[in-house]
Amino acid sequence: MKLFAVFVGGDHPRASIEVHDLRFVVGETLEDTLPALRAAWWGTPGSLHIDGYAELTEVDGWQVVLAPGKAGAPPARRLWFVNLGGYTPGLFGEQHNYLFLAGTDKAEVWSRARALSPEWTGRHKDNFVCIDEVIDVSDLLDSEGWHLRLDHPATGETPGRIVSDYIKL
Length: 169
Description:
The protein has 169 residues and is mostly beta strands.
């Protein structure tokens, strides 16, 4: 089984523009995850599409190992998703940078994410180097009946794929 991060989009009756969400789903292939993506979509059903996805088999130098059930002990390092946001003069709206990082705690991950953030001239309203949110993916998967480990150094033999493309569902 593989872990996928899927950037979905579509319409919502109360929105003026397309809305987006990020979902973490498990399957052998992206196609296996489509029923879960459809079931979780909160927008107009017929408008759902994928704007990009990441097949998270290796992250930040570590293999992503998925197993069913609860983890026996807290993992030594965890998989984190970081959404960095900021502003650039002359570009309308907030810009984003999405990162997948391995780390032991939130403070460590935030420090690394700040170092990897773009050189935006304007800061987000929280004034914390534009970090919108940090999601602990390990906790999210635990609630879905899976756990993951990042305890094997990546070999480069199964690098994850990142695909940015419009895929209508």
